[in-house]
Write a structure and sequence with these properties.
Elements lengths: L9 H6 L1 H10 L12 H20 L9 H10 L5 H21 L9 H7 L23 H6 L1
Helix pairs in contact: 2-3, 4-6, 5-6
Length: 149
């Protein structure tokens, strides 16, 4: 696993997006001051990030070329997630892009694509019904990871 603070260039994130994310995730605090992120929360975040990475890799997109349209398309492609869950995916992606910009010293160079996706009034991902069951974990290949993490 790489140390997020040694990833000084976007190519580090582009080449190893999962490992970079895991290193970043390990540094995230939990909700209670002085406590680490709960393991169950880390599992969910990792499953969400892997889903996003699979999507952009399938479309031959690197992290440094992700646009608001890419994020909107990804969020719209989710079959089992309700509106609130899709919003949590978007928020996680936003937080990761903040971390990428910080470690690559490119703060404020570009607008965070996840923030722009939130502001897109024409996005279809946020028009889905809310309060659906959270069965999306059971339709992913990450279920084994969720159980064994």
């Amino acid at each position: 696993m790489i140390d997020i603070f040694s990833a000084k260039q976007e190519k580090d994130w582009n080449c190893m997006p999962i490992q970079s994310f895991e290193a970043w995730l390990a540094m995230q605090p939990g909700r209670n001051p002085g406590r680490p992120l709960r393991a169950s929360t880390a599992k969910v975040y990792l499953a969400q990030w892997r889903s996003f990475i699979r999507y952009i890799e399938a479309h031959q997109i690197f992290l440094n070329t992700v646009t608001p349209n890419t994020i909107n398309a990804f969020l719209s492609s989710l079959d089992y997630e309700n509106r609130d869950q899709r919003a949590r995916y978007r928020k996680l992606i936003e937080r990761v892009f903040i971390a990428i910009r910080a470690c690559t010293q490119q703060q404020q160079v570009n607008i965070n694509p996840a923030v722009a996706a939130l502001c897109d009034r024409h996005a279809t991902w946020n028009k889905i019904h809310g309060n659906r069951d959270t069965i999306f974990f059971y339709h992913r290949t990450d279920i084994e990871l969720l159980i064994s993490y």
